[in-house]
Amino acid sequence: MKPSSLTKSNANHKSCIALLLTIGLLAMNMIAQADNSRVAQYVSEIDTSFLQGNISVIEQQGNSNKASVTQSRSASYQFANFSHIHQRGNNNHAEIVQSNGNNIGVIWQVGNNHSANISQQGNTFSLRADIYQTGFSGDITISQSGSGLRGISVQQQNNSGSARPVTIDTY
């Protein structure tokens, strides 16, 4: 490897670390400003040179919103989990629970009184779940387990208040 390419690689690595630290600080700032949020992330071994830490971003605007994220990664060879919860409105509830690695969970709520839950187990292959709710009083639950390489996306628009709850279980 040429010395100039090694320097370029180190610069790229430092840029990635700086970006992740910035995202982490933004997430912590958003959590500190949120109504009632809880984030718990676990890894068995931390190695920042591979940038494999779990990432969680929670954005809340409104009153009495609740968000909870629990992420785990049981082995150092597994990739990180990523979660993103966005809430704009009042009295929304969102929860994401992810185990093992390489899972992605996204909950997007705009409106009032929504409830959304994602639970994913997985192994070393990716599971992905996306929930998008608009209007009011939507209720969606997604539960996945197993080997992965699966993605589920649910969009619910409820402006009448009479939508039925949506539950998806895969194993």
State the main characteristics:
171 residues, alpha/beta, six-stranded parallel sheet, five-stranded parallel sheet, globular, Curlin_rpt
Shape: globular
- Report mean pLDDT, rounded to a whole number: 77
Helix count, DSSP H or I runs of 4 or more residues: 1
Uncertain runs are: 5-11, 30-34, 46-51
Q: What helical percentage do the residues reach?
A: 10-25%
Biggest sheet, open or closed, and with what strands and sense?
6 strands, parallel
What portion of the residues fall into strands of 2 or more residues?
over 45%
> What's the N-to-C terminus distance?
46 Å
Oligomer: single chain
- In angstroms, what is the radius of gyration? 18 Å
Number of strands: 11
Strand order of the largest sheet: 1-3-5-7-9-11
Class per helix and strand makeup: alpha/beta
Structure commentary:
This protein has about 170 residues and is α/β, with parallel strands linked by helices. It contains 1 helix and 11 strands. The strands form 2 sheets. The protein has a 6-stranded parallel sheet, with no helix packed on it. A 5-stranded parallel sheet has the order 2-4-6-8-10. About 10% of the residues have low confidence.
What order do the helices and strands come in, and which of them pair?
Blueprint: H1 3-33, E1 36-43, E2 55-61, E3 66-73, E4 82-88, E5 93-98, E6 104-112, E7 115-120, E8 127-136, E9 139-144, E10 150-158, E11 166-170
Short account of what is shown:
By secondary structure, the chain is α/β, with parallel strands linked by helices. It contains 1 helix and 11 strands.
